[in-house]
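Work Package 3 (structural annotation) set out to generate three-dimensional models for the target panel prioritized at the project kickoff. During this period the team completed the workflow that converts sequence records into C-alpha cells, so that structures can be stored uniformly alongside our sequence database. As a representative example, we reproduce one entry of 386 residues exactly as it appears in the project archive.
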Amino acid sequence: MSQYKEDIAEAKERLGAWWDHELIDRPIISYWAAQPDVKLYELGNLLDYFDPFYLAEHWEGINEALDEFERVSKLMLFAEEAIPRFNPYYGPGIMASVFGIVPQYKSRTVWFQRDTDLKDLLPILEGTKLNVNNEWFERLVRITEIASQRGNGDYCIAMTDLGGILDVISSFLGPTKLILTMRRNPDLIHACRQTILEKWMTVYERLQSIIEKYSFGCNSWLNLWCPKRWYPIQCDFSAFLSPRWFKEFVVDDIKTQAERFDYAIYHLDGPDALVHLDELLKIDALDGIQWVPGAGNELKSSETWMPVYKKIQNAGKSVIIDYFEQPERLPHFYNNLDPKYLFISTVFTDYFRAKFSVPEFAGGNAGEGNFRSFKKELRKKMKSKK
C-alpha cells in the first residue's frame, strides 16, 4: 500500500508479468492526471515534476526537492501502471562528474564539458576513486540514501541518469577530437571505454543497493517500474557514428551492460541514430527499445513511426513510448501493436479528459462520443457514489 496509489500492488504485479511478455488480465498503460477536485494551478509547473531540474541547479537541495515532489504527488492520480517515483536527476550523464567534470546548469539543460589532453585522459579515468573523497560519488550515494529512506516504499527512487559510456569520453574530448582519436588511436578509446564501463557498473550497483534497502524493485529516469534490476542503456554520441563504428565502439558496451542486468532497454535518440536499429535488434540481452524522434521531428505518437515500432516488435523486443503526445491515438496503438510488447505512458492535466481518452481496458471511453456529455455523465456517477 502507498499513500499515493492504493492499487500499487496490483500495478506492480502486472508490470512484473509484462517484463516477461505476459499479460495478467489486460494490456498495461501508465498515465497521470490531476485528481478530479484539484485545480491546475495547485500543481505548479508540471514540467518541473515530470522533468525535474531542481537538483541540477541546487546540488544539495534534496529535502526541498522531496518536499515539492510529495506535495504534488498528493494531488496526482497515478492511474493503472503509473508508479509514484522520485527522480534524483542531476543531468543527462552525471557519471562524467564522478570522473571530475563540473556540471554546468543553464536553462533546463546541463552541460558536461572539460577540454582534456589525450595523454591525460586515461590516467584521469583510471585514477578516479569511488570513495568518500570523490565529491560526486559521495553526493550521489548520500542523496540516494536520503531519498530512499524518506520514500521508504511509499514511492520508489529512480536510478539517476548515469549516461552512456562513449558520452563520458565525449565530455572530455568533444565530438571532433573523439572522432579523430577513434580513427587515429582506437586502442586508447577502447581502454577508456573499459575503464568507464567497470566504474559505471560499480556506481550503479552501489546506488541500486541503497534503493533496495528501502523499497522493492527498480526504476529509472525512464519511469517504468520493474521487480528486478534494469536500466535504459544509451549512447547519444552514436548519432555521429556510422554503423561500422557503432559496432566497433559501442555495441560491446551495450551487450556487457545488458547482460549484467536482469532486463535492459535501449534509449534510441534521434533520426541520426535510427541507422543503428538493426544492430541493436541483434542483441539478445536487450528487451526493448525506447524510440525518441527528437525535437523538430514527427511526434512519437505519429503514424510515421509505426513501421519502426512494428520492426522492433517483430524482432521480439518491446516498444516503450513515454509521454505519448496524442492521447486520442492510444486505442489505435494498442489495436495495431502487440500489447505484450508495448508500454505507453502519458500525462493529462484534466481528470475527465483522461477518462474520456484512455482505452476501454483501462476504464476509459477510448475517445468515443462527445466529451462534454461524457464529462457530465461521469460527474453524476461520481456524485452518486459519495
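The two ends are 23 Å apart (CA to CA).
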